[in-house]
Amino acid sequence: MIEVKLSRLLGDKRWNQSDLAKRADVRPNTVSELYNDFADRVSLDQLDRICDVLECDLSELLVYTPNTKKVRKKRTNTKPTGGDATGN
Q1: Tens digit of each residue's pLDDT (9 = 90 or more) over 24-66
Q2: CATH code of residue 43
Q3: Is residue 79 a part of any domain in this protein?
Q4: Does residue 78 sit within a domain?
Q5: 85 alpha carbon, distance to own chain's centre
Q6: Residue 45 vs residues 25, 66, 84: alpha-carbon distances, Å
Q7: Among residues 9, 12, 18, which one has the least CA distance to residue 60?
Q8: Mean pLDDT over residues 13-20, rounded?
Q9: Total count of domains within the chain
């Protein structure tokens, strides 16, 4: 699980989401999604700009915790099964 620590980092600087969006030149919606831990995808460029203005390391912004429940992905067979176009 990836946890976003943006709320704590903004609190430490006494900034609000709008302050960060303006300083990092990131859409306010993106900042809000990160702040509320709803973001599924964020570009590396956006993360770089956020870390730059917050003067933090990426590991301070994003924290990885191993999942306690193992999730196995289903494998699909993408290899050809052999034979020709007629199925032989």
Answers
A1: 999 999 999 999 999 999 999 999 999 999 999 999 999 999 9
A2: 1.10.260.40
A3: no
A4: no
A5: 43
A6: 11, 25, 47
A7: 9
A8: 98
A9: 1
Neighbours of 87 (CB within 10 A): 7
**CA-based radius of gyration for the chain:** 20
Residue 72 lies in a domain: no
Instruction: Look at residue 67 in the predicted model and tell me its pLDDT.
Output: 87
3-class DSSP string for the chain: CEEECHHHHHHHHCCCHHHHHHHHCCCHHHHHHHHCCCCCCCCHHHHHHHHHHHCCCHHHHEEECCCCCCCCCCCCCCCCCCCCCCCC
Q: Domain residues for 8?
A: 2-64
CA distance 28 to 30: 5
Give residue for tokens 């290899």. Answer: 79
Query: How far lies 46's CA from each of 11, 39, 61, 75, in Å?
Result: 20, 12, 12, 32
